[in-house]
Amino acid sequence: RLVSLDPSGCSQETKTLLYQKAKEAFSEQHHLPAYYELILPYLGGAPAADLKALSKDNVNMNISTFVTLRRESLMSLTPHEVQGLLGVNLPQLAQWQSRAPVRDWILVQKQWELDQLHLGLTGGTQEGYINIVTPRFPALSSAPLGAVATALSLLPALLLSVLVGSILS
């Protein structure tokens, strides 16, 4: 309990294990303001649920800690929860908006929620738009690329005609 480690060079699995051990070790202090300082070195292994709980305490996390959080945990946070985690350090998020993992986090947020932070963050999903994720593996189709592109370009027209046809019938 009295030893503080620096798990920054550890694998994600080790960070996760160290976080769980630290959480158990400091569980008695969970209700105290000092809890955040005790658990801080181990937050790189924290699950999203624990980060969401910390966000309610307005812990004023520094940006260097924020960008080292577990990726899947970070990606599941809402702009409001990030605001609760960063507190007075929230304006620093704008300086990181073009770098990973902040850039990746912004891309999965709704733009109107990002706008509520008043930081000028851009790149979130606009209202009424659908995010299409390009697969990272080669297509299995044997069709020439031109034919696939033509078929995809006709898809909106096809969907619109089906929609209009169903409305008129």
TrEMBL record:
Organism of origin: Cisticola juncidis
Subcellular location: Membrane
Keyword match Transmembrane helix: yes
InterPro entries in UniProt: Mesothelin, Stereocilin-rel
Domain of life the protein comes from: Eukaryota
Keywords: Cell adhesion, Glycoprotein, Membrane, Signal, Transmembrane, Transmembrane helix
Entry GO terms, CC: cell surface; membrane
Protein family: Belongs to the mesothelin family.
Main subcellular location: membrane
Protein name in UniProt: MSLN protein
One biological process term in Gene Ontology: cell-matrix adhesion
Listed transmembrane segments: 145-168
